[in-house]
Specification:
263 residues, NAD(P)-bd_dom_sf, oxidoreductase, single chain, NADP, KR_dom, binds 1,4-dihydronicotinamide adenine dinucleotide, SDR_fam, alpha/beta, Rossmann fold
Length: 263
Amino acid sequence: MQMEIFNLDGRTALVTGGGRGIGRAMAVGLAEAGADIVLLLVAFDSPNNRDLSQTETKEQIEKLGRKCFTYACNLELKDSVSRVIQEVLSSHEIHILLNAAGIQRRLSAENYDQETYEEVMQVNLGAAFTLCREIGKYWIKNGIKGSLINTASLASFQGGVRMSGYAVSKGGIAMLTKALSNEWATHGIRVNAIAPGYIATDMNVDTRTSPDKTYYKSITDRIPMGRWGDPEEFKGIVVFLASKASSYITGEIITVDGGWLAR
Ligand code: NAI
């Protein structure tokens, strides 16, 4: 039985990164709680984004009896982001923004070239900033008390190794979340972030399947719960943050990490 405070009937969520992994599970979770979903999907073939056909999320959402709309958007391209926001807002009333898209590029700091740094910063932080600003502006103008949810990381708290650009972007997501919360709380807009620990997705398939298990084992051994997380384990937190269940929570970065950060 669905508890009323978690109910998202009549709400519509705009979601990035919903094509697979954590973003897909969260989009489906929001739909399970009653929300309709607008997905911003990328359809390009770069070596680290292996998902060219992202129809599965839409199918899962529609099976639940919810509506799902898809728009093409490459978050790497600033014009693509600005254009799609206007397109979406001209056809949908949005109540929830979930920024889940992200990319990881593993390079030593001295070899982290400018192009890669800028790509990571734009997809992980720049596009999220633009989406937050435009949706926040629209909510203020229309008196909508929306819930904005960003996706942070353990790298929002710890610098990591061989991921300097990623750590800068995710540190930025934490501060973006707090800064927007400070400015928009008076409008009834809540801004929070979810910080995943080590979650088994395409993003880290190389680490998990490498024949040399040393690195994988060192991580797994450090997780107090002794295992990597599953994308399905993000449904609860995202529904909580999107719904009335968290009506007095804003400016928070909530870790979902099997205890990693406490250790
Ligand atoms: P994933 O690689 O499976 O999914 C990332 C999604 O972002 C994909 O749907 C992809 O199409 C989308 N995306 C990437 N570049 C894009 C672009 N240029 N334009 C539009 N969409 C684009 O990754 P995963 O693991 O599901 O990650 C989801 C979020 O969680 C990311 O923000 C990631 O940084 C974060 N995260 C993941 C962790 C993990 O262990 N998997 C740990 C900490 C944070």
